[in-house]
Design goal:
The complex is a heterodimer of chains A (91) and B (607). Chain A is of the alpha+beta class and 91 residues long. Chain A is 26% helix and 26% strand. Chain A has 2 helices and 7 strands; from the N terminus they run βαββαββββ. The radius of gyration of chain A is 12 Å and the shape is globular. Chain B folds into 3 domains: 2-209, Aldehyde Ferredoxin Oxidoreductase,  A, domain 1 (4-Layer Sandwich), CATH 3.60.9.10; 244-422, Aldehyde Ferredoxin Oxidoreductase Protein, subunit A, domain 2 (Orthogonal Bundle), CATH 1.10.569; 435-604, Aldehyde Ferredoxin Oxidoreductase Protein, subunit A, domain 3. In chain B, helix 18 (439-447) crosses helix 20. The chains are: A alpha+beta (91), B alpha+beta (607). The complex binds iron/sulfur cluster.
Amino acid sequence: MKVKVFANLREIVKIKGHEIEVEMKQGKVSDVLEILLQRYGTAFRDAIFNPDGRLRIKILLNGRDIDYINGLESEITEQDILYLFPPVAGG
Amino acid sequence: MVTKMSGKILRIDLTSESSKEEEIPEETRRKFLGGRGLGTKILYDELSAGKDPFSAENIVVIAAGPLTGTKTPSSGRHVVISKSPATGGVTFTSSGGTWAAELRKAGYDAIVIKGKAEKPTYLWINDGKVEFRDASKYWGKLVGEVDDGIRVETDEEAKVLQIGIGGEKKSYMAAVMNEKYRAAGRTGLGAVLGSKNLKAIALKGTKEIEVANSVAMSRAADRALKKIAESDVTKEGGGLYSYGTAVLTNIINASGIYPTRNFQTGVFKGAEKISGETMAETILEKRTACHECPMECGRWIKVDKGRYKGIEGESLEYETSWAFGGQCGVDDLGALAKVNHMCNEYGLDTISVGNTIGFAMELFEKGIITKKDVGFKLKFGDDKAMVSMTELIAKREGFGDVLADGTRKAAEKIGKGTDYYTMQVKGLEFPAYDPRGAMGIGLNFATANRGACHVSGYTIAAEIVGAPLKVDPFDAGEEKVDLTILFQDFTAAIDSAVNCLFLSFAVGAEEWADMIAGAAGWDGYGVEEFLKTGERIFALERMFNKREGFGKKDDTLPERLLKEPMPEGPAKGKVHPLEDMLKVFYEKRGYDENGHPTEEKLKELGL
Ligand code: SF4
């Protein structure tokens, strides 16, 4: 599956095309995050979690906020795309 | 009693070349604040129904508010209020920069313009001294040149607000520009000033802006600043600061509501290439900011390669990059910078111009208009055709004349059922959100008094961005209606305060109410009264529009969004459930079934 990162997260995950490949046939959003935390370390952890452990970024699974699916427990399969958006705004 | 903060209204009669000053009654201040509220009140009281927006009788109010120009954050905005040629109703459009702060330093909270000058004229307002000057030599000139010229003739430090060629040619998409790059873009008010032969207003002010209780105001402002600094969205180094408003491009596209090729779908393949992130990596030179704004969302860009090499200036907001990007199918940042620059120089609203060109591109794609009509191929994705069409619109030449008044007017001229393809409400073109995947913004687009306007009730903040709260974009129930109403009222109050709406990503109504209470010296002023003010203003706009014949029939969305399911992406299969939401909206607002405030509601609001 693919993970796409945006805005300030790109400064931490310095990867061409800003797209991370994660080998996963089936699993949960939390499993993917665990893999990424191991890969990108503390800076990544600080960017996606508040000190109190709450998520500080918005996670979309195939474009839908995981809060409206099953949160970090949302199921993932191979073809899915996970989008990680740090807080952004405009208009 | 007149509070200490009170500036005056400067009344201008262009027909007789005369001016006079007027106090703003305390009751009006407290009920309508300033900005949009004050302007709407003046329009409602002084412009009777049925007047042609281009007649000498139409009134243009340019207003600041009690917080404008003060030390409260992001307080450099002014609001232009008038009867719109695009919608036929009352409208407001606002712009940032520093012009509004200068207006207050010159001693005024608002300028009210009536009549029609005999020849092109500009106003030079220097600390309370008003001169009517000949602007003939500036007529037909580009915005940058006029700004420079007028400052040479008046004062190098003067702040210049003006119309461009778009306004002179009375395009319904003409903007009111200030300080070269800033635009009060929407609803064609540049054309109203053009019809009055008023080219520009140059300002210089050296007075101190007095506030009643500066300690109380500063205390509330500090709380607001703290919230800005703590919010991941608005803080220094945060998303908006680092990437500008176009940081939205990717999240809106990922959410499947990035209108593409005239709202045929909500997913644009080229989004990444024109996003705020790509801009920061390629053409961004530096950030820019309005008066007292720590968020610095403005971008100064420079294109240094490709066909559009050499384009430089303050440019490319999210909405603009969408209007010429997703809407026209163009994914070249250089091309977008080019048309943005052209719209600034000609004084045109980027959202409506891009939307209208995308509309014409769809007609071309469907064979409803051809090369014979247009003069060249007008295909989606063709940046050269887009640039040429922008030029023709600005000059009202060839097919550009057909498009120069926006999509509704163009469809009237073209016929053949083309109104189906107009993405507009009440005559105002859509901005960059497809309501089929965000139900609150759809309800707002349908009910906003000036037409398809995102900044009347920016529910996207909650539905997509999640700031300051987060809701499900697909929900269309009662709570979503409540949220939309709250956003509309809060915004109307902010637009009358007047600070930048972007503050509301971090700052709440409590801070705002306290800042106003401090500035005005009002005892007992709080959140409830602040939001009531917004509700009152929204209702008064409705009452103005009712007089002009508006009703439920106008609170609608384009048929495409109600009937054609979204073809792909996360919102696949969805249409907008407007009818059900609208019924609840009227009930909750205390409006009758035709969308007009009931007698009871008017009484409650003191109208
Ligand atoms: S957030 Fe942007 S538009 Fe608003 S006041 Fe600040 S710089 Fe200006």
